[in-house]
Design a protein that fits this description.
Blueprint: E1 3-8, H1 13-23, E2 27-35, H2 45-52, E3 56-61, H3 63-76, H4 88-107, E4 111-113, H5 122-133, E5 138-140, H6 151-160, E6 174-178, E7 181-185, E8 215-222, E9 225-229, E10 232-233, H7 237-249, E11 255-261, E12 267-273, H8 275-291, H9 294-313, H10 320-333, E13 338-345, E14 348-355, H11 363-366, H12 376-386, H13 388-397
Parallel strand pairs: 1-2, 1-4, 2-3, 4-5
Antiparallel strand pairs: 6-7, 7-12, 8-9, 8-13, 9-10, 11-12, 13-14
Length: 399
């Protein structure tokens, strides 16, 4: 009896070769492909997977689940790995792993498989997520153990076994896309001293070629969820994000170039495009600053973004820690209501206005006009009490 395995399948060279490689070793391969907004035509995936040796091919639209259950909580945490990376590829892995587990249990498979390498982060995300949900499943990672030492050897194997793959040397990049952003690696990008070539980017125009006129965009939030752009309301969060990707992308907004510390210990030069996410992060932070008191806002900024980003990046999505952080962020999100006006121009996004029915901004306290209602005389006593520790220190220093 053949061993049944559910394979996370992209249709690229690696996963197409994996189908045949596993089949040759006695496995019955069922491929699973998730539409998470990568913007690629997936209708040919089943035919391609079966031509490679799969006994069944599953394609599923997960865009809205991905947007609401993965992107949105990460936005509410303002999570940026190492202060830059909005966790584009990192977010899709636990969702895909969850689906691999569901189909393995439904179809009686003892194995799931992925196409990650031995020095990447994704192997950890796939495997830790799988075991958190079903520790009895075995995870196969053929790329870590097969005999191929180069991409050229994989191509030769594919041609020999009539595996349908498209290979081009024109764009030597490794690309991973979903509606939250694009991850770009390999080729000339492996030299951190080299400026990313323009042909590496897919969703954003060069800032130099962006329109010479700024565009203003207004994003509206209800209970921590973006619901409208320019007054246009969206029923599906995924559609709003995809629309914002186009709006911000045509102004060159959302390009990120960084040297990143991978989980396995190596440094890697990474390039990302996240136009919609970049705008939403700016807008959400601005509303938080308007509706949260100082104590809560400072605690949030100090503790949540960095820790949440680590949880996502390190594959701990299904941990109690992530659930607990989500509960905290959700309690704050209920106050995040209002509109933020942003200016998009030549690769930059700037907040130029914000309003909220739950705003803690009080004009007669903040103003320096005749409307000023602040008790300035109270400031003298406040300063004396607040500054007392340093006043005492000053006395001691002076003997």
């Amino acid at each position: 009896m053949a061993k049944k395995v559910i394979l996370a399948y992209s249709g690229g060279l690696d996963t197409s070769v994996i189908v045949r490689w596993l089949t040759d070793r006695g496995y019955e391969v069922i491929t699973y492909t998730a539409d998470v907004g990568q913007g690629e035509e997936l209708s040919e995936i089943p035919q391609k997977a079966k031509a490679s040796g799969a006994v069944e091919a599953i394609v599923e639209d997960l865009k809205e689940e991905f947007a609401k259950e993965y992107c949105l909580p990460t936005l509410r945490a303002l999570a940026l790995y190492e202060g830059k990376y909005p966790l584009t590829a990192s977010l899709s892995r636990p969702l895909i792993a969850k689906k691999l587990v569901e189909y393995a249990e439904r179809m009686g498979a003892d194995f799931v498989a992925h196409g990650s390498t031995g020095k990447g982060n994704d192997q950890v995300r796939f495997e830790v997520s799988t075991w958190a949900l079903n520790p009895s499943l075995k995870v196969l990672a053929p790329v870590r153990e097969w005999e191929f030492r180069s991409r050229e050897e994989e191509v030769e194997y594919a041609l020999k076994h009539r595996i349908p793959v498209k290979v081009t040397k024109e764009k030597p990049y490794s690309i991973d896309k979903n509606l939250w952003g694009v991850s770009i690696e390999c080729g000339p990008l492996e030299d951190p001293a080299v400026e990313p070539p323009e042909d590496a980017f897919e969703w954003t125009v060069s800032p130099e070629r962006a329109p010479d006129t700024a565009e203003y965009v207004e994003v509206e939030f209800k209970e921590g969820t973006p619901v409208a752009i320019q007054g246009k309301h969206f029923q599906r969060l995924s559609d709003l994000i995809l629309e914002l990707n186009q709006v911000a992308g045509r102004h060159g907004v959302g390009r990120i170039d960084m040297v990143e510390n991978r989980l396995v210990g190596i440094k890697s030069r990474e390039v990302y495009e996240a136009p919609g996410a970049t705008v939403l992060y700016q807008a959400y932070r601005e509303l938080l600053s308007l509706v949260l008191d100082r104590f809560t806002f400072h605690y949030f900024l100090t503790h949540i973004p960095h820790e949440y980003a680590k949880v996502v990046y390190e594959g701990l999505w299904f941990s109690p820690l992530r659930s607990a952080l989500d509960a905290f962020n959700l309690s704050l999100a209920k106050m995040v209501e209002g509109k933020v006006r942003l200016k998009l121009y030549k690769g930059k996004v700037s907040v130029v206005g914000r309003s909220s029915p739950k705003s803690l901004y009080v004009e007669d306290l903040a103003t320096y006009s005749e409307k000023d209602a602040f008790d300035h005389k109270a400031g003298a006593s406040f300063t004396q009490v607040f500054g007392l520790p340093l006043r005492v220190l000053g006395r001691v220093r002076r003997g």
